[in-house]
Amino acid sequence: MNATETPYVPYVMRPETYIVPVLFAFIFIVGVLGNGTLIIVFLTVRQMRNVPNTYIFSLALADLLVIVTTVPLTSTVYTVDSWPWGSLLCTMSEFFKDVSIGVSVFTLTALSGDRYFAIVDPLRKFHAHGGKRATRMTIAIALSIWLLAIICGLPALIGTYIKVVVVNSNKSFSLCYPFPEEWGWEYAKLMVLLRFLVYYAIPLVIIGVFYILIARHLMYAANVPGEMQGAVRQ
């Protein structure tokens, strides 16, 4: 269909115009209260500052970042026709969203590795929770995760712009778009593929491998006492 034949439904007649903002407002309130409380508790209660909670603290920061900077802006997309916040907030919204996704995914991956070593080899000083070396290493990993997430978000920071879309001869609207047209469709397809691999497929495989190894170790450990008893009887 060409531009003059594309049907258009006014936003006042769309159900999502009224449903989505309510859902986003609920997400915003719960997200700010939940993540904000977790961050305050982590910073004020010294006993909470261990290796797993450090990763969870990083997750809470990433969630709070996207909730505060992206959720309120994105909700307006469902209530008005065009992006109303200007090019700067358009760019920052896409960038913060990618950073938050990266921090969340990479942190969950690191947390699965920490669980593996804590269960399979708990005597290693490297993973002794509360130790100074473990604390320094955990902070270094968390900062590296944020740095990697920022690097992964740079394409959105550089390429995002406000795109004008022509619906038909009487209607057009503007949207926040992360793939510049002058970079071609191949760039858009490549970025979608890379995001799928970096934010989903590769972390999923790594997390799956760690938890399979954990399950294998626990199954083997559960069978050890019975085997030892049999050996003693013999």
Provide key terms for this protein.
234 residues; mainly alpha; two-stranded antiparallel ribbon; 6 helices; elongated; disordered C terminus
Structure commentary:
The protein is mainly alpha-helical. The chain has helices at residues 16-44, 51-69, 71-75, 86-120, 132-159, 184-233; strands at 161-168, 171-177. Helix 2 (51-69) runs parallel beside helix 5. Mean pLDDT is 86; it is low at 227-234.
How is this structure best summarized?
The chain contains 6 helices and 2 strands. The chain is mainly alpha-helical.
Strand content: 5-15%
User: What average pLDDT do the residues reach?
Assistant: 86
* Uncertain spans: 227-234
Alpha-carbon distance between the two ends = 81 Å
Major beta sheet, specifics? Answer: 2 strands, antiparallel
Shape: elongated
Query: What is the share of helical residues?
Result: over 70%
Identify the strand order in the major beta sheet: 1-2
Order of helices and strands: HHHHHEEH
Instruction: Compute the number of strand runs.
Output: 2
Category from helices, strands and their pairing: mainly alpha
Tally of contiguous helical segments: 6
- How large is the radius of gyration? 24 Å
